[in-house]
Every structure is written in C-alpha cells, then in structure tokens.
## 1
Amino acid sequence: MNAVEVSELTVRFDSFTAVDRITFAVGVGEIFGFLGANGAGKTTTIRVLTGLLSPTEGRVRVAGRSFADGARTIKSRVGYMSQRFTLYDDLTVSENLAFTSGLRKIPPAVSAERIQRLLRFVGFNHSPSALVRDLPGGLKQDVSLVAALLHDPDIVFLDEPTAGVSPAARSKFWALIRGLAREGKTIFVTTHHMDEAEECGRIALMRAGRIIALDSPAELKAQSFPDPLLEIEWTAGAPAGWRESLLERGAASVVPYGLHHHVMVNNRAAWDRFVGEHTGRLTVRTIAPSLEDVFIRLVEGADR
Ligand SMILES: Nc1ncnc2c1ncn2[C@@H]1O[C@H](COP(=O)(O)OP(=O)(O)OP(=O)(O)O)[C@@H](O)[C@H]1O
Ligand SMILES: [Mg+2]
C-alpha cells in the first residue's frame, strides 16, 4: 500500500493555478523529497495532503483513505511540521507540548511519557521550562518535530524543516529523519538544500505547479546528464564572449559555478574545436553531476 496517492491534483486560487495536475505516489517508509523554487506549489500540495485545503480538481488518498470518508483517521496518522513556525513563543517547551497533546486528545499519562521519550530522541538537552522564544533556531525545530510526532503518526510532512538553521543542526536533524524512516514512518519533506535532497530515496521536482521530474537522486542525475558534465576553468582569464560563442555553436550548456563553469557538451565536434582554439588557457575535467546541477538544469532552466 502507498502512504500517499495523488492523482491529477489541481489547486487554483481564483484564476491562479498553484498546483497543476500532479500525479504521484509515495510508498510506506519512503523518504520522499519535494523540491522546487519558491512558489512552485510545494506547501500548497502539503496543505491538501494534510487536509487543510480541498483540491480544486483531482483525488488524493493518504494512509489509504480519502478525506471525504476518512478525514479523522487520516489526521490521526499524519504529522505536520509547517513551514511557518507554529510553536508559541511565549510558552515554555513543556507548555507547548502539553498544549499540542491536548489538541491531539492524548491522555496526559501517555503524553508525559511520550514527550520525554521524544525529547530524548531529538537529543533535547535544554530545560523544558525554557521559553520557546529563548531557544536557538535548531532547538526550536527539534521541539516542532517533537510536537509533530506526539500522536505517533505513520506519515510525517516536514515543510522546510531546516530553513534558517545551522549546517550542524541540519545534519543532526537529518539523522533524526533517517531514524524515523528506519522505524517505518513515511517522510514527506521539502527543502531548498540539495545536500538534504541527496538523502531522499526519491525526489519530485516541481516547477510552476507541475512535477517535472520524479526519481531517485542517482536516476535524476543520469537522466539529466546523458552526456558527460565538465568543469572548466580559465587559467589565464576568460576571453570576452566565450560563453555566447559556445552557446551559438550549439556546443554545450554552460552554468557558472563559483570560479568555474559547469559545461554539458551537446555537440562533441564543436566542443573539441572550441577547446582546440583555447589550448593552454583552459583546464577541463569530467565531474559527476550533483543534484544542484540537476536542479539548475531542470528547474531553473538549462542555459544561463
Ligand atoms: N491562499 C492563497 N491564495 C492565493 N495564492 C496562494 C495561496 N497560497 C499560495 N498561493 C500561491 O501559490 C503559489 C504556490 O505557493 P506555495 O506556498 O505552495 O509554494 P512553495 O513551493 O511552498 O514555495 P516556497 O518554497 O516559497 O515555500 C505561490 O505563487 C503562492 O503565492
Ligand atoms: Mg512552501
């Protein structure tokens, strides 16, 4: 059985189409990444999958049910950490978690034990009587995750859970995500960090409301870069107009990358001529494409 099934889902706000006929499924226990530029439609999709928003068209099933006949069951099996920070700043960690337990109708005895277990799980070593306002960003995210897990959901939606936290806190957070997946939970996560996307079993790339690619990171790289990807560096300064000249000849797509450029060769003969014309000024090495290369190529458009 799939944890999530989406068929021809469309969401319109007035005449604006935020999600445009997307179809996909997420298997039980997957870490499924949802990627796309700002405004691509990721949060809107998650709001539909958590029952906060009704589709304009199309069907969704979550935990084997549709919202029409099983909203209560779905909500009991789904956890949601929203993109906006949802804890109360002026309540303590304990008060926030007790409040969420109350909303979730978790009996106090069960909730006390769970809160302790989950705070241990996320490695929370701060005082539970600290005001949330006074916690560093990474710890707030940890407490938000605990709040999303209090009712022991099978499917966890994490909308940019690591936005604005330090690299160390991000990497720790992903260790938690992997731990949840090992327990058999399904993780549906959005991120703008490509190193995090690498951690996903499969990723969907969204652009302007549509899913434009969906596969494992390795497959996406293989499919997006059928030809070798080269990293080039001008060792004695780049000649004026070289990119335009390369693009005009149809030789390659070129993307600036720090001090280098990443080049995908589309026309071997034209590329070889180009390299020949610049012998001694250009170093070229073949590199493995990263997900960032894939993202730039597919989501932001190939030739910049
Ligand atoms: N309630 C709403 N009314 C009108 N437009 C909306 C509403 N919610 C979202 N939108 C629009 O729909 C589009 C998709 O928004 P969404 O929040 O799903 O994007 P996103 O992929 O989550 O982006 P981000 O990476 O910035 O979080 C955006 O253009 C947004 O402005
Ligand atoms: Mg969003």
## 2
Amino acid sequence: MPELPEVESIRLSLTPLVLGRRVIGARLVRRDVMVAAGDPFGGLGRQRTASRRPAMPAPVSRRDLLEGLDIVGLERKGKQLAMIGRASDGQTSAIVVQLGMSGQLIHRSVGERVPQNSHIHAWWRLSDESRIVFRDPRRFGGLRALASHDDLLRHWSLLGPDGLNIRAAALASAAEGSSRAIKVVLLDQGAIAGIGNIYADEALFMAGISPHRKAGTLRPPDHARLARAIRGVLSEAVAAGGSTLRDYVDADGNPGTFQLQHRVYGRGGQPCLRCGTRLRTAAIGQRTTVWCGRCQA
Ligand SMILES: [Zn+2]
C-alpha cells in the first residue's frame, strides 16, 4: 500500500513530465472514484452500506478535472498527491489523488501504450499528447476536486504534520496524554501524515521503541529519537524509490527497491538484524506488527 515514500516517488517522477503542460482532455471513467463539490461527506464511493436512496451525484465539470488548465505544480502532504491547475484568468483548481491500497498514477508519452485493462478510472491528455492514467484495481483510492489552492490547503489542514519533516515537538504533542499504543498514533493521519504499516514498524525498530508502548509514556529523548527515525526511514525509502510489495510503481512504471532494506516489516519469525532474537508478530490497531522484543522497549 503506497505510503509517503511511494507517493513522493510518484510526485518526483511525474513532475518533470507534466509541469507546464496544458490538460487538453480529461475523462472520468467511473464517477464514484471522484469526490466533487456537492457530494455527500466521504464521497459516493463510500456509500456502499448507506441508505436505500443513494445521493444523486453532483455533475463533474471539465474544470473539476482541470481540463483547459495548465499544470503548475504537484504537491504532496502525507499520502495525498495534488495536481494543481491554473486557468488563463489566473484561478487555480486542484485534484487530490489518494492511492488507497493499489492506486497508480502512470504517465505515458505519445506512442506508448496505455495499460489495457478495466481498472483505469480516469485519464488526462496533455498538450504534448502524453497521458496521465489513474488506475486502482481494488478501488480504495479516489480523486477529490477542489476549487482553489486555498481549498486544498484547508483540506490538508485536517492532516497532521508531514512525516518527512516531523520534529520532536510535533511528535510530543501528538503523543502526550495519549493512552493509545504509539504504533496506533503513528498510523493516525491526523496526528502525523504519511506513515502506514511498513514505515511505522521500521521507524519504531530504528528508535528502539516497542509498538505496544503507550504513547503518553514516551519521554522527550524518545520523541527526539523517534522523530529522527521517522525522518530517516522515510527519506531512505524515498531515495530507494519506495517499497514495492504488490502493485506500486512510480509515474514511469518503475517499482521501488526499499522492500529489500526492510529491517522488520514482513520479517516476523526471522532473526533480528541487530541482536539475532526471533522477531515477534501481533495485531496492533488491526494491523500486523513486527518488532524485536529485545531491542525495542
Ligand atoms: Zn533485536
């Protein structure tokens, strides 16, 4: 599942291919992957268990899809990526892409084949005849149209500080007084944005902190060590192009290689790389968690 390093790798690989290009055509193949202005909270795609009378979808305009706009930036916060478009009148719009479990945002130059299968939910045609394709086989991801860059910043203010730049003070304020396990706090996007199961386990191992530890019991040196470990593991992973477990590829279709450097994630039952003790596994916050009972306290 794409976490911060994978989304950042997509941003870095996509930016030089699309920046300054105009969106000359856009198509939304599945309406329910898009949250548009006027849609119910959570969007239409989240209404699977809702009432007998599903809300009528608000129409998605060409402007919502950035059609006719120039792409002037790709921004990221946590696991969310936004394409920013600017119209000739100077007004901005944004589309936020959430990749969920299996989402991909792939760029195809003119003449390159677009993957032919049924999981393409939206695409954009650019002024150089290249395309951006949004695929999501498992459909936990989605798109959100925002009417301005200010609306994007308001939307992102619900997220905690970005994990790549997390400081001890921000981590302390997220952890202080909390009786939740620190692993659960790390996964809470409102506390810290961008960390999922892989990088939570890796950062806690690097910091020598047990995933079960109540967040409120961390002391200032723990906050500093954990903040450093989070920044370190996320930036190492960005440098390796992210981790590819199943579907993840960057905008050029290249997988990441950081999965080869995982120290604990996916290694339950194997020896700890630091002390040789067999790594333990348990569910914390419904997520499989791996840690060393000796190195992490
Ligand atoms: Zn160990």
